[in-house]
Amino acid sequence: MTSMDHDFSQPNLVDYGAIGKRRRDPLPHLLRQILARAGEPCEVPRTASRPWCSALFQGRRHSITLRIDGADAAARRRALVHGIGEAEWTLHGHFVADVTVDDIRSSADGEEVDLSALTIEEW
Q1: pLDDT (tens digit, 9 = 90+) per residue, 69-87?
Q2: What residues contact 57, with CB distance under 8 A and at least 6 apart?
Q3: Alpha helix (H) ranges present in the chain?
């Protein structure tokens, strides 16, 4: 028996849209909303997204690192993480099942926040 990778989300395809029943990765839309919540200046030095499934659901597990800069970075970081688990997110074809803060690092240059999110495809 052989296996084959059926990942049709290669960057050289003309349209990075849904193929068959596959849906787009909701990470870009989620990132826009997280960045808006964090305020400016903020950057995303690292992200990762991978498929996730259970017996009843399928979706994606996301890992996000945010870098918050500026004189008010600590206050903006506190505002970002406060209540992030209960925040409302709007994603087409997905919903956010969970968002957690994995780590917070402070330095003289700013703040870094590691987040994990689980998005589930809507049926």
Answers
A1: 999 999 999 999 998 988 9
A2: 120, 121
A3: 27-38, 73-81
Residue whose entry in the numeric block shows the structure tokens 């903006």: 76
**Rounded Cα distance, 54 and 81, in Å:** 27
Positions of E strands within 1-123: 42-53, 58-68, 94-106, 111-121
pTM for the whole thing?
A: 0.75
CB within 8 A of 114, min separation 6: which ones?
63, 64, 65, 101, 102, 103, 104
Distances (CA, A) of 19 to 10, 14, 55, 119: 12, 12, 22, 19
| CA 120/CA 39 separation, integer angstroms | 26
Amino acid sitting at position 102: D
**Token pair in block for residue 88:** 């409302």
What would the two tokens of residue 1 be?
Answer: 């028996």
